[in-house]
Design goal:
single chain, 658 residues, alpha/beta, Rossmann fold, Fumarase C, Chain B, domain 1, 3 domains, seven-stranded parallel β-sheet, 27 helices, 15% strand, binds iron/sulfur cluster
Amino acid sequence: MIKNSSYLEFFPYPKFRLEQEDIIEKIEFLARIHKNILLVAPNGTGKTIMALSSLLPVARDKKLKIIYLCRTHAQSTRVIRELQKIHHSSPNNNKYTSGISLRGRKEMCLNTTLNSMRVSPTEAMSICKSLRSNNSCNHYRNIKKFLKGGNSLDFYNFEGPLDAEELITMSKDRRYCAYFLAKFLLKKAPIIVCNFQWIFNPDIRYRFLKFLETALEKCILVIDEAHNIVDLATEVNSDKLTPYFLTMSLNEIHTYRLPDKYWQFINFLKDHLAQKKKDLKNGELEINPKEFITRLYKKFKLKSITEFKRFLEKFRDDAKISIQAQEKDNTKKEPSQDYIKIVVKFWLNWSRKLESERYFFCYHVKTAARKKYISLEIVALDPRDITVPIYNKSFASLSLSGTINPSVFTHLTGLSYKQQGYEIIITKSPFKSRNILALVTEGVATDYNNRNPFMYNKIITKIIEVVSNTPANIGIFCASYKILNDLIMNGIKISIQNTGKKLFAEESNISASKNAKILENFKAFSQPPHKGAVLLGVCGGRNCEGEDYPGDFMNAVIIVGIPYHLQTPRVKAKIEYYNKVFNRQGWVFAYLYPAMQRANQASGRPIRKESDKGVIVFMDSRFRERRGWISEWVRKEIKLIPNKKNSISSTVKEFWRI
Ligand code: SF4
């Protein structure tokens, strides 16, 4: 069946792991015939190397680019490291195995002005543009000068595939702009490793592909940790207006001396949001979008939505002309931004989407660090609006995940809509049964009616049975911060300290660097002379997804409660919408599946490679009924633990004794 199969030229290791060769052959074959492929494989199966060695020969033969999408920098680095191995082991194919990992402009920027500002990616783009047009960025000037001097940059200047971190270090030494250095190399790179946004955000994708002088039809997409794209696709299709953007727009109106009518419009919105922030409690309040916009345009003596749109477009154009004029005579060379454009885009979006049942409109109020925030939001409900064009147009795609439910994923993303069809490949578990102990505990639950001191004490007692009998580190991931805090209020800290292990508790508002320090210390406590540590976090949180804990860094994981979302108006709107478009599957697709997906992600933390040994405890008896949703490699190992004193202790002790 397999014709043209050339993966052996690219596979860099002396032998294949379980099933690897069959899967690689299959992916190569399917990619050659333009299929969308979903590979469901647990960690430890070598998904990255399977993806690269199967797709590189297709890309070479068909003159395509591979765009490898990852969620985190660590995952991108892992792809580049595998690519470097391929590059060095396959010298005849060097031309086809060069690649580069790319980060966002703000993360690669070395300009101190931009780096000192706390701005969003859109704002960073506009500031960078302004700095360049003012000729005020030395790093950009240096790289331009280098290229103007007749120098050209390609991968022969370097020793094979390059990670973004390596590019940043190199650029610091030479005072180049790392972001533009990466961009100059991109066109020649057959493999680009980047964040999902580069393809899933339609505006970014348009500019990215235009820059590369290619089209999706000429790209093979690899989507790592593909379970993330359901939420990502709705996020990138949503929009938000905050008082900050309105304040900044007022400043721009003042600076550019724009007509008073614009000032009145923005100021009215700002006052309106300020009042709502006072009146509303934390949470969401649904808005009837048509009524809202009608009241808004009538307030400004406009007769219809069409007139309102014209008003917005004129506002945007007037601002653009003024900004350009200022940039020309800006003697201070200050970066200019364009907040008016962001505000206008929001209202044009609102006008376009107000009749569609695929969007939900609301005020959203939240409190963080004791400060109250408000936003007006347009929430997209259907991920397929974003995913289907990507899956349909790309030459072929390979979505990778260890925890996905293929049927739900296929429905939610429209993976199957491609004319050439799709294929699902599910691998066997590479883990030995004797290395995994998976338990569902009876007698405890964290549903609303059970959240009382008696239940929390029972949960803490059972947690301590696991902690006391585990050799090194343990992760406890709660269904929510509410449950995490309730455990703390009910004395989990002291109970853990009494076991001789150190407790590290995740905090929702700390910086990434402080959190990284917590993780570093937690991992260090897995080694003697320490007796191990406990990491207390939440399912779906930053320490639960995207962070690996191989070996003794995490011997056991405890999932406390089923991590259902709160039933907010937005979640209810999604359930209702899914009921309409997915044959009454709203509750399952929008509520149960995401919760079980988060629990599955948490359950995989201690088992990252074939040799790992670990305990996975689902500490909520409701998991028994939801067993069918647990990842297959864990499900087949599950034991029910009766609600009896010390039954967890004896089971865990016995597991580690063998
Ligand atoms: S050109 Fe590069 S270094 Fe300069 S502001 Fe833009 S991203 Fe930063």
